[in-house]
TrEMBL record:
Keywords from the named record: Lipoprotein, Membrane, Palmitate, Signal
Protein name per UniProt: Lipoprotein
The organism's taxonomic lineage, starting at the top: Bacteria, Bacillati, Bacillota, Bacilli, Lactobacillales
UniProt keyword Membrane, yes or no: yes
Family: Belongs to the nlpA lipoprotein family.
Gene this chain is encoded by: metQ_3
Gene3D superfamilies: Periplasmic binding protein-like II (3.40.190.10)
């Protein structure tokens, strides 16, 4: 019995050491990064980055959400390590409203928003007195959409920062500007004159960006709309997240944008 007990003990110790050795190898060589994303936009780009990440020992996993607020909350609490869905303006507003400590760790792309034609409209000239135009109803994109309509010359605003329809001071065509949920905008095109739709929603709804009748102009003021990779400030300098930024900001990624998302401009080495 004593010999059997000694043999069993030796076997147990050997098995435990082997298991510890395996665990150590995984933790040292395989780093999992959870990335919070919204919708299916950039699916082709992320698929490529995931494959390239494996060569650098990174296991990149996408975590899909339906709401930007949820993504930032999950990043704040550590449920995801980094997210890729928002621009500087949205991040700054979210941090202020939620006492957040999220930080941009790398630029991704700039996606000009667009005005798409609705029923009976083929150009800006077709928009008539009293027509309806729908815009996103979330504060950030609502203000951006109103600024777009001001740029066209349809309206004038008291100010551009987080503008709402109540800030319209002039509306020369007496347009009915109606904020609705962003996901409902594509369906509204069947009944309204036009809709301001962001690239992500347009992509998910398979709307041809070339059908837009007006595109947001790019200037130095566009920098606030540059999309970014975002992490909690306490993870901003994590070496694995820095690896992810480098993987993203490559010529390979630029070429993927040209192939799949020609309307989006790589922003990490471009001056606006």
């Amino acid at each position: 019995m004593r010999k059997l007990l000694l043999a069993f003990t030796a076997l147990f110790i050997a098995f435990t050491l082997a298991a510890c050795g395996t665990t150590s190898a995984i933790s040292n060589n395989g780093h999992t990064i959870k990335v919070g994303v919204a919708g299916t936009e950039e699916a082709e780009i992320w698929a490529n980055i995931i494959q390239r990440g494996k060569k650098d020992g990174l296991n990149i996993k996408l975590v899909h959400f339906t709401d930007g607020n949820q993504i930032n909350s999950a990043t704040q609490t550590g449920q995801v390590d980094v997210n890729a869905f928002q621009h500087y303006y949205y991040l700054n507003q979210w941090n202020k409203s939620n006492h957040g400590t999220l930080k941009a760790i790398g630029k991704t792309y700039l996606a000009p928003t667009r005005l798409y034609p609705g029923k009976g409209v083929k150009s800006l000239k077709d928009i008539k007195h009293g027509d309806q135009i729908v815009i996103p109803n979330d504060p950030t994109n609502e203000g951006r959409a109103l600024t777009l309509l001001q740029t066209i010359g349809f309206i004038k605003l008291k100010h551009d920062a987080l503008a709402t329809p109540n800030d319209i001071t002039s509306n020369r065509l007496a347009l009915k500007i109606i904020p609705v949920d962003a996901g409902q905008l594509p369906q509204q095109l069947k009944t309204v004159a036009a809709a301001v739709i962001d690239n992500g929603t347009a992509h998910d709804s398979k709307i041809n960006p070339n059908s837009a009748i007006f595109v947001e102009p790019i200037s130095s003021a566009s920098s606030v709309w540059i999309n970014i990779l975002v992490a909690n400030a306490n993870k901003a300098h994590d070496p694995n997240l820095q690896k992810l930024v480098k993987l993203y900001q490559t010529t390979t990624t630029k070429n993927l944008y040209k192939k799949y998302y020609a309307t989006e401009l790589p922003a990490w080495d471009t001056k606006f």
